[in-house]
Amino acid sequence: METQNNKLTPVETGERITALDLMRGFVLCGILLMNINGFGLAHAYGDPTISGGSTGWNLYTWIVTNMFFEGTMRGLFSLLFGVGMFILLDRMDKRHAGIKGADIYFRRLTWLLFFGVLHAYLLIWSGEILFNYALMGFLVYSFRRLAPKTLVTIAVVLFSIGSFWNFMEYKSKVGMLETVEKATALKAEGKELDRDMKGAMKEWEQIQEDRSPESINAFNEGMRKGYFGVVAFNAPEVFKWKTYGPYRYDVWDVLSMMLLGIALFKWNILSGDKSVRFYLTIVVLGYAIGLTVNYFETTNIINKNFSYISFYETNTTYDLGRVAVSMGHIGLIMLFSKLNVLHWIKYAISCIGKMALTNYLTHSFICMIIFTGVGFGLFGKLQRYELLYVVFSIWIFQLIISPIWLKYFHYGPAEWLWRRLSYLQKPPFRKNFT
Q1: How many domains does the chain have?
Q2: Deepest in the core among 95, 206, 277, 292, taking most CB within 10 A?
Q3: Residue 428, in any domain of the structure
Q4: pTM here?
Q5: Beta-carbon count within 10 A of 66 CB
Q6: DSSP at 409
Q7: Which residues fall within 8 angstroms of residue 430, CB to CB, at 6 or more apart?
């Protein structure tokens, strides 16, 4: 039976793991480097030739982000989410919470699912991840007590399935383009096309239409409408990714990293408890493997002049590169957390991490004001490298505001509300200085 001293409450400040907050802060800043392309440009998250520019500084920006940040920030965000859910469940198990702990866990995820829907539709961000994390979090519950080696094995299997799906998709696109080439030749000769050829031609024409300047201009104008207009314009894109995305990507991309994160946490790797030599080894191996893979992927795309099929071709090794680089990032962040330097910046970044949900939602709110017709209507008007000015400005803002906020409050406002709804009790909000 639960005693008063064993009361189920949110994690107190003193119980937090500093290294995890520091990593969460780094990752939250890093994920904006990738998301900003979706916030400010049409269909240019991966392919810089569609909009935003692909030469000069725009090309260099794409290369750096593609090499170091693409897939890795989302991967580490997923990893940390899995760790957070495990810590919550582990605390509940140690307090013998039983069904009450499960209630809190699933209620927490249900509210996150709801926040994700509001975030995607009302804050106009089709790339939001809270909804997807909640769905995958429901699955994490059943894996929490598995041994680390078992978790890693399952994660590797999931990665492999995702990579195989990417490979089959690549082969399908190759076949489609070959069919289009044959159909084009037959059409020029005035011959009749069969059903498969007509289907391939129609698919290719739609792809070309979606990438055309006219289509991009129409998308830009749609995102510059007033609030209700842009909400309606954005809704089909949100619906597409919230229905198609979970089974096409999230199980192999998100759940896999959540399970890997739990394994690494159980091995005490994410708490900063390992030696400097251990983390240096992770950095060297992770970057040696990951950046090599990413280099060949990036140069392959550039050498093939950003062709449509080159992106699908490089997706076949995507997970190998991103997971290895993610491990390198982990080692580097853990080393930084162990060094006795730059305490003020560590503290500021960890404060961003403690307010991760609030700061993540703030990204969307600020970008809605900057890019859509709700505010300045700059969607599609900045080049890719110019979007970095927005990123750096938001970083500086959050590095200043987050420590100030946490000086006076226990939690960020979104974190406090989430805890309030999850535990069905009112946690302390304002700090008492008396």
Answers
A1: 1
A2: 95
A3: no
A4: 0.93
A5: 21
A6: B
A7: 408, 409, 410
